[in-house]
Amino acid sequence: MRYGHFDDERREYVIDRPDTPLPWINYLGTEAYFGIVTNTAGGYSFYRDAKLRRLTRYRYNNAPFDVGGRYLYVRDDATGDFWSPSWQPTQSELDDYECRHGLSYTRIAARRGGIRAETLYYVPLGETLEVWRVNVTNERDTAAELSLFSSVEFCLWDAQDDATNFQRNFSTGQVEVDGGTIYHKTEYRERRDHFAYFACSEPLAGFDTQREAFLGPYRGYDQPRVVEQGAATDSIAHGWAPIGSHHVRLALQPGESREVVFVLGYAENPRDDKFDPPGSQTINKRNVRPVIERWLRPETVADGLAALGDYWDRLLGGLHVTTPDPDTDRMVNIWNAYQCMVTFNLSRSASFYESGIGRGMGFRDSNQDLLGFVHMIPERARERILDIAATQMATGGAYHQYQPLTKRGNNDIGEGFNDDPLWLVLGVSAYVKETGDESILDVPVPFDNEPGSEQPLYEHLRRSVRYTQERLGPHGLPLIGRADWNDCLNLNCFSDTPGEPFQTTENVSGGTAESVFIAGQFVLAAKELAAIADLRGLGEEAGEYRAAAEKMTGVIVEHGWDGEWFRRAYDFHGNPIGSGENDEGQIFIEPQGMCVLGGVGLDDGLATRALRSVAERLATPHGIVLQQPAYSSYRIELGEISSYPPGYKENAGIFCHTNPWIMIAEAMVGNGDRAFDYYRRINPSAREELSELHRCEPYVYAQMIAGKDAPTHGEAKNSWLTGTAAWNFVAITQWILGIRPELTGLRIEPVLPADWPGFQATRAFRGATYEITVRRGAEAGLVVDGERLDGTVVPAAEPGTVLRVEVTVG
């Protein structure tokens, strides 16, 4: 069952009924100001940091799921009937409804009783504000007297404190109203010199800033008393719950339309301002007033929307493909690339599944996200790499997460996820391959953001590899620490007595549990760093890294091979995990993918055997599950993984993030049919017909899909912010289509499904444009501008060059 359709020409997903299985969301903002908006106008906004600079309040796990957002109410003043153009929160019956989620903007339109209202939401480039442009049209044969009410509920900045510290917060709310602008100036603990504002372009009939005055006692946003009565109260919030609501009266003749613009934004007082010094209770409006006035003008709003479209034209123009499969084209050219950029901006910090409170930017996550967006906006990739590296510790270890506002590691989540450091090598390698920018390796970067500790970025990469080499277990495999990629596989938990509370080793990074997954990742990272060392003329050092990779490969074959697949790990007691010796959890997906990505088993047939085991034991019609058999009960020696019911999340769920590793591995062994088959199984566009089962958005990847052991097999959860986005983009573009950046140039080495005659692509690479045509033929070959080249790598061309590349695959 579908709830909408793709409009590929306009790069929009069109939702034609509001009652989607879950709220289907979009993201507003591309730089510092961001917002989540659903197909029914739910969501929230923040500046840079979803925890520390939350502008609007949102209540998670609410019922209905999508309550709290950017709400508008249209009231017929003659009859008293009122409704929401976004359906929520009034849920009034609509004559028609349409939501168009585009690239960083959303339009929601509805009609009721001869009145049509359409709202455009977006964040202009270079601004710390969002625009709501509302068009109200009278389609009746008679004049209409209408009221339009806006509504936002302000958050008291720190979202966690806002949701818990009521004994204080109910006494701190402060607002100021100046003309059509409501200023929210509540401060958190000490004067922070920042404020929010909510402005309207039209003369006001009234306003409200106190929630209870607007809603009325014992009422919700579905039936606000002010809207019901048709008159604002001009309330001023003193403590309790500050909101922003404007009341605008509209007298419309038959066929007449009126445009009303609302602007919600964030501003700061200048630090050196003498008129409003820090610590004063006065907000500085002088700098922000011109901004508000400019963005309340319809022509400015129109120009800003056009500029946003141009921005996405530039970003998406770096790669465009035309293949025999429309779902592939749609995802590669639009939605997967778009999701990669959103995920880069936010890591895992703020969605409907991440509250923006519990975590910031992930060290591991952000490095993997680089893989999917570096070709679109390399200058921001460079900046992100340096931010990430600055949170690394001098040991080579890493904070698992850091806050985007402070760019410092979270103190309560120190090193111990022992895969984290190696991802920095892979992220930097991807950047240098894409850009050819070796200078980044010489940039001085501090450790743990401590002044005076700066070392070249290349030294950070050395320490990332050394971190693993200095932490090996009894079998010579890397210690897993608190966990590796699978945060829920906590093998340094144990109990001396069955039934007793678990203990953890004093230093989890020094526990005895070992990871075959990290071993495969180390092989891959050591080879990548060896190539970078060669690039820098460090041949002897490069040889050392290759030797380390070869040695670890031998350890994997000796202690990580189980006969038909790669083992997952060894627990604290030295028992194998992911082995035929186990009664449950005999085979895991992660090492089958990562070991092959590192090249383990490609020469001796182990890779092919491991991938055959994946196909036989882990693959389902909805994707590849994490492990089998699922754990049927809690096992203290495994940690959190066994606390999930069978088929969900890490306990045999389809963790979509890992599926592309198998796609890539299948491409590496030359199996294009199976690689592409796996790609389509979790491709959101290809699953659109299953929307009633899938439930999440059909235009972006979800983190997980319920596995075959679950009663809801095929149901998705945790959409949008997931490493699935970057890795699927890499799998389809770099390995199946085979257009892959290398240090020496652009490799074009497709591994296609047998029924594809070929495809076409345009790829920007280091300032040049590659117009690529791939077709099948009797003899494989590469021709560039009419000249046949040996191999599959097209050397990097001069910026501004246009190359015509013809590739024949056998």
Description:
Among the domains are: 4-312, Beta-galactosidase, Chain A, domain 5, CATH 2.70.98.40; 334-470, no CATH class; 739-809, Maltose phosphorylase, domain 3 (Sandwich), CATH 2.60.420. A hairpin with a 5-residue loop joins strand 28 (569-570) and strand 29 (576-577). With 810 residues, it is an alpha+beta fold. It has 19 helices and 44 strands. Mean pLDDT is 93; it is low at 495-502 and 505-509. Helix 8 (363-373) runs parallel beside helix 10, helix 11 runs antiparallel to helix 12 and helix 12 (516-535) packs antiparallel against helix 13.
**For the CA atoms, what is the radius of gyration?**
28 Å
Q: CATH architecture of one domain, please?
A: Distorted Sandwich
Instruction: Name the beta content range.
Output: 25-35%
Biggest pleated sheet: 10 strands, antiparallel
Q: Which helices and strands occur, and which strands form pairs?
A:
Blueprint: E1 4-7, E2 12-15, E3 25-28, E4 33-38, E5 45-47, E6 54-56, E7 71-76, E8 82-83, E9 96-101, E10 105-112, E11 115-122, E12 129-138, E13 144-157, H1 159-162, H2 166-169, E14 175-178, E15 181-184, E16 194-200, E17 206-210, H3 211-215, H4 225-229, E18 242-252, E19 257-268, H5 288-295, H6 298-316, E20 319-322, H7 326-346, E21 361-362, H8 363-373, H9 378-390, E22 401-402, H10 420-435, E23 444-445, E24 455-456, H11 457-469, E25 493-494, E26 503-504, E27 514-515, H12 516-535, H13 539-560, E28 569-570, E29 576-577, E30 587-588, H14 589-597, H15 606-617, E31 619-620, E32 623-624, E33 627-628, E34 654-655, H16 659-668, H17 672-682, H18 691-694, E35 702-705, E36 716-719, H19 724-736, E37 739-742, E38 745-748, E39 758-765, E40 768-776, E41 781-784, E42 787-789, E43 793-795, E44 802-809
Parallel strand pairs: 40-44
Antiparallel strand pairs: 1-2, 2-9, 3-4, 4-5, 6-13, 7-8, 7-13, 9-10, 10-11, 11-12, 12-19, 13-18, 14-15, 15-16, 16-19, 17-18, 20-39, 21-22, 23-24, 25-26, 27-28, 28-29, 30-33, 31-32, 34-35, 35-36, 37-38, 38-43, 39-40, 41-42, 41-44
Helix pairs in contact: 7-8, 7-19, 8-9, 8-10, 8-19, 9-10, 10-11, 10-12, 11-12, 12-13, 12-14, 14-15, 14-16, 16-17, 16-19, 17-19
